[in-house]
Design a protein that fits this description.
It is a single chain. By secondary structure, the protein is α/β, with parallel strands linked by helices. The protein has 2 domains: 177 residues, Alpha-Beta Complex (Quinone Oxidoreductase, Chain A, domain 1), CATH 3.90.180; 107 residues, Rossmann fold (3-Layer(aba) Sandwich). The strands form 3 sheets. Strands 3, 4, 5, 6, 7, 13 and 14 form a 7-stranded mixed beta sheet that branches. Strands 10-9-8-11-12 form a 5-stranded parallel beta sheet, with helices on both faces. It has a two-stranded antiparallel sheet with strand order 1-2. Strand 13, helix 9 and strand 14 form a beta-alpha-beta unit. Helix 2 crosses helix 3, helix 2 crosses helix 8 and helix 5 packs across helix 6. The relative contact order is 0.17. The chain is built from 9 helices and 14 strands.
Length: 307
């Protein structure tokens, strides 16, 4: 009889209610792979899109039941042939294409890194999306010392990481968020500004020398304002307006995630040099509620599932 595991999965696309905990065959580690007993998995808008029926172009058709989630932390419980440097019993955090909302996940050994003891499981499980997306985006638009970067959606997990990464590079950061999150942004080192009518004028008042680059995590009106403020559209990257990026001449996030990058930020967090708050941790059985939360588009920090 095959080994079974619990997973939050769906058998047909739809709203959050299609996510159900079900028993399915557990994966087994093959050559070059490790299996991780998952302790926490991050939740992100990408997962909600997958649940709605979208698959990224780099994935072939994925059979049902389909398990969302592409970031996780847990304990290695199987090591495949030809794997070195990762042992059974090791605490790790890592990334995948899908399948993280489950008790077990199998990934290439190159896609995990050691979890420092001072990084809680909930933080480790949700770290990869925030830091990898933010650094790849900031690299793509060439943010450097002396630049002024505008971050839309600055209080979310990617925004939280982007503010800190840009500040570490010597950039000035202006962050859009609801007023309830403005003190939080100040604590991260950003100059906060409210959304809504008149946003362009408010930003101009805060940046009389102009805005050099934009990381757009909100889309819509925020992206339209960005087009007014930045002379070179190649220095605007959007995380949400995938369908409009080409016609507008703005960037999408490009590049590959890496265990090296993930490990670097985990170490910074462990040393107290990088903040990454968890907004709320839901149980695996509450995956549908976690998706309802992420789809509000509001709130500080990261949403995770604990398993």
């Amino acid at each position: 009889m095959s080994e079974l595991m619990r997973a939050a999965a769906f058998t047909e696309p739809g709203g959050p209610e299609v996510l159900k905990v079900m028993e399915i065959p557990a994966p087994q580690a093959g050559p070059g792979q490790v299996r991780v007993q998952v302790r926490a998995a991050g939740v992100q808008p990408f997962d909600a899109a997958v649940r709605g029926g979208w698959l990224p172009p780099y994935l072939d058709e994925v059979s049902f039941p389909r398990i969302p989630g592409n970031e996780f932390a847990g304990v290695v419980d199987q090591v495949g042939e030809d794997v070195t440097g990762v042992a059974v019993g090791a605490g790790v955090l890592g990334f995948s294409r899908l399948f993280a909302y489950a008790e077990y996940i199998v990934v290439p050994a190159t896609d995990v890194t050691a979890k420092p003891d001072r990084v809680p499981w909930e933080v480790a499980g949700g770290l990869t999306s925030g830091v990898q997306t933010a650094e790849l985006a900031i690299d793509g638009i060439g943010v450097a010392a002396g630049d002024t970067l505008l971050v839309h959606g600055a209080a979310g997990s990617v925004g939280t990481a982007a503010v800190q990464i840009a500040r570490r590079r010597g950039a000035t950061v202006i962050g859009t968020a609801r007023e309830v999150n403005h003190d939080y942004l100040r604590a991260l080192g950003a100059v906060p500004v409210a959304y809504g009518e008149g946003l362009a004028d408010r930003v101009r008042a805060l940046a009389p020398g102009g805005v050099d680059a934009v990381l757009d995590g909100a889309g819509g009106h925020a992206l339209e304002v960005s087009l007014e403020l930045v002379r070179d559209r190649a220095r605007i990257v959007t995380l949400v307006e995938h369908g409009r990026a080409a016609e507008l001449g703005v960037r999408l996030v490009q590049g590959e995630r890496s265990a090296e990058r993930l490990g670097r930020y985990a170490a910074l967090y462990a040393d107290g040099a990088f903040a990454f708050p968890v907004r709320r941790a839901y149980r695996l059985e509450e995956a549908a509620d976690a998706h309802r939360d992420i789809e509000t588009g509001h709130g500080q920090g990261k949403i995770v599932l604990t398993i």
